[in-house]
# Entry
Amino acid sequence: MRKRMDWRSVKFDWNRARAFLVTAEEGSLSAAARALGMTQPTLSRQVDALEDELSLVLFERAGRGLILTPSGLELLEHVRGMGEAASRVSRAASGQSQSIDGPICIAASEVYSALVLPPIIQKLRQEYPGISIEIVASNASSDLLRREADIAIRHVASSQPDLITRKIRDDEVFFYSAHSYRASIGNPQSFAELKDADFLAFANNDALVNVLIALGLNVTERTFPIICDNHIAQWQLVKQGVGIGGITRNIGDAEPLVCRVIPDMPPIIVPMWLATHRELNTSRRVRTVFDFLAAELSRKPS
# Structure
């Protein structure tokens, strides 16, 4: 027989525990208040009240940030488990919803969010005006298990068993530059001729380096005079004639200010996947948006 829980022994409020958890993860009261959508004084009072309830000091101040005390570190692991349990309850409740109207959060890369999704979202809103949409535009992978998004557009398959994924299509990536920049480097016909060309790089540039080496380019530090982690900013730099950057064919070929640097280069294949949590996929709203995105994104660019 299952033993009943002694609820009288629970000495703290979950809202205060949540305030502590988010503050610990964000590292400051101001960031935690933004994450929870409340004012900083309110959040601070909740954390203070939790410390009073437990008779523990959970944080020490370090400049504008906060550092967990040993007691705070020990408590954090337990509260984190509570947060994960609360998230599972929320997902289960969302999964039972059969209403189409309501919010949906879609995560996608910066380029997809800015240059691929807008016409799709406009069409989605026309067809389902009761659905409100939040777009998380980031090259970092959103954690669907922690409800950072309901649906994610990704370029790698997920191995997490709690996620449902669908392969949409393979995108083709080419390298582009402004017409004037290509002319200034002699209208090259092979990657070997790009040894003195300027490529735009990311802070973590290993993947790009490996691609260029595989294509026959002798890569040196001189190859990457400009580093920019924002792909939209990179694309603007390419259009201004600053250097060479990679982007998908449907975007690059449609931009009149640029051209393929090597006209007959083989495409770089980048897979496109849709992912959602398996419990959320039983929600009519999430299933509707998931299927809508899959249908629109699967249309092969002309």
Observations:
- The chain has a mean pLDDT of 84.
- DSSP finds ten helices and eleven strands in the chain.
- Residues 171-269 form a domain with the D-Maltodextrin-Binding Protein; domain 2 fold (CATH 3.40.190.10).
